[in-house]
Amino acid sequence: MTTYAMVIDTLSCIGCGDCVVACKNENKVPAGLNRDWVVEATRGEYPDLETEFRSERCNHCRHATCVTSCPTGASHHWKDTNIVLVTAAKCTGCKACIAACPYDARMLMRPEGYVDKCTFCHHRIDRGLDPACVASCPTHCMYFGILDNRDSIVSRLLRARRYKVLMPETGNQPQVYYLI
Amino acid sequence: MPESKPTLLRFVLQSLGHMFRGPPAYWVWVGFLFALILLGGWHYYLQLRDGLVVTHMTNQVSWGFYIANFTFLVGVAAAAVMLVVPAYIFHRRDIKDVVLMGDTMAIAAVTMAILFVVVDLGRPDRFWHLIPGIGRFNFPQSMLAWDVIVLNGYLLLNVGISFYIVYNHYQNKEPNERRYFPWVLLAIFWAISIHTVTAFLYSANSGRPFWNHALLAPRFIASAFASGPALMAIGLQIIRAISDYPIRQSVINHLALVATIALQVTLFFMLAELFTEFYNEGEHAASARYLYFGLDGHAALTPWIWTAIALLCIAVVILMIHPLRHNPIYMNIAFVLIIVGVWIEKGMGLIVPAFVPTPIGEIYEYTPSLIEVMVSIGIWALGFLLFTLLAKAALPVHCEYLRRQQAREQCNWDGFERRHNAD
Ligand code: SF4
Ligand code: SF4
Which of A44, B69, B277, B387 is most deeply packed, by most CB within 10 A? Predict the structure, then answer.
């Protein structure tokens, strides 16, 4: 399985939300729904507190519980990568995947009745481009690449810096890394 | 009974005939259910037209009232084994005479359960993707795929067994035990499996700590064996009151005993869970806190769950005091309390809190919309109608058979009772 990963530097994120806007434009996400979002959290212990901005989205888990729980195979891994996509025409809207996703990354396209989510902009990857959110970030705090490749920017960053993933205890092996 | 040869066609025609004959009260009841079904159907049409947006389910709380009812009904369906096991494994004659009603109730309950899943789908027209063979069915990975198989299998098993027995009775033959017993045995295990699989559907979600624990499936089965027999006992008493179907009090007492024990176990499991969640309260207890005490000022479910606990506690006290349990009025009060209590606890109280707060810590509360309530009422009415029609068709055949059997055995109900008491 080829592993695509996103690395996000929480130390240089300013929480501007450009990634959210870029995604909405690129993927024509309807009003009221979001495929990515920015979380404003507090880090550290009193009195040494700081604000942490995290741009969050589907973690394109290597062990994706949304894929295992989907009864029809509408949720699937794209071309033997960790990228998780939903085939709209096969999705019954049963919402088993929404319950199964530990990261709240899925949404029901209503009234169309199927589930939608971040695709890591696989249509852009095919053309050799970065995902829209990564390309639009004004502070260059997001990086995208193949983790199996030791020289990729993401591999080098993860070797050089301290990082975390969200809720590693779920066993999903999430592939969005946060530099801290 | 027709003098002509009892063929399958005649059997079907005669059953239909029974369904369409009845006193005015029967027609009022059927008409009433029909009206509710039409009302539910109209609201389902609205949901089909406008999409799930007409429900109050959101991306955060994505399962609601429908799945709550589904969960409760799977329990009722599974509880038919509480008649099947004593009837076929322990050969209790009194229970064997009514086991058919247990199967009929299972058929109605499992049909309702399947319908509740269908109305919960955003795109029910794509349901065929879930049919093995036609769609690419994600089996054995997906728990929902398992659920589709076990629920439909259970429905088929119960329809098959009931049909075989009633048809044999119609032909005035003793059903061949060698032929149906293996299927009965299968149905017993299957009943446990529908419940276990449904519990696994929830407990498999590692991101939802409220569900993600090993006690969920045992707790499911315990509360199912409390609510199912309670509902069944009420149904049997109603049938006894309005027909000449001989239902012994010993059957009702048996169901009351089962419900008592299962309710005790349910309450014990609940206590164990409360202790584990709250003794050293961690982050994972947030959903439980929301349910039982409210979280950050949000407490929509708190009054409901405490009502349910109070009802179940009153019921267990009534059932544990023997003179009360053997008093028909108190016993039936306890049954109603159990049904309502478990319906809350295992329905909304189990499904909704798992989504509150969301994994990223937001709180979205959920109450069903009018459309959800109306559609649900329609499905319940459909289940009651199904049960009424099936029972109406099967009862005369079965009563006739029992009468002939007695004549053959040269015994009457008194002799029957003497023998049963001697056991
Ligand atoms: S984050 Fe959720 S939707 Fe994305 S792959 Fe993981 S489980 Fe699936
Ligand atoms: S909602 Fe769609 S993608 Fe999600 S589990 Fe059901 S069928 Fe699969």
Answer: B69
The DSSP line for B241-303 is HHS-----HHHHHHHHHHHHHHHHHHHHHHHHHHHHHHHT--GGGHHHHHHHT-BTTB-TTHH
Cα–Cα distance for residue pair B25/B80, rounded to 1 Å: 28
Residue B135 has pLDDT above 80, yes or no: no
Q: Which of residues 110-169 of A touch B (CB under 8 A)?
A: 110-115, 167
Confidence of residue A60 (pLDDT cuts 50, 70, 90): very high
Give, rounded to a whole angstrom, the gap between the first and last alpha carbons of chain B. 34
Sign of the torsion formed by the C-alpha atoms of A39, A40, A46 and A47: positive
Sequence-ordered list of residues with C-beta below 8 angstroms from that of B270, at least 6 positions apart, any chain:
B219, B309, B345
For ligand 1, whether the C-beta of A101 sits within 6 Å is yes
Partner residue opposite B207 with nearest CB, options A56, A94, A170? A170
Q: Is CATH 1.20.1630.10 the right assignment for the domain spanning B24-400?
A: yes
* Inter-chain residue contact A108 with B59, CB threshold 8 Å: yes
Q: Where is B338: in which H helix or E strand?
A: helix B328-346
Residue B246 pLDDT greater than 90, yes or no? no
Distance of alpha carbon B42 from the chain centroid: 25
Q: Could you give the domains of chain A?
A: 4-179 (3.30.70.20)
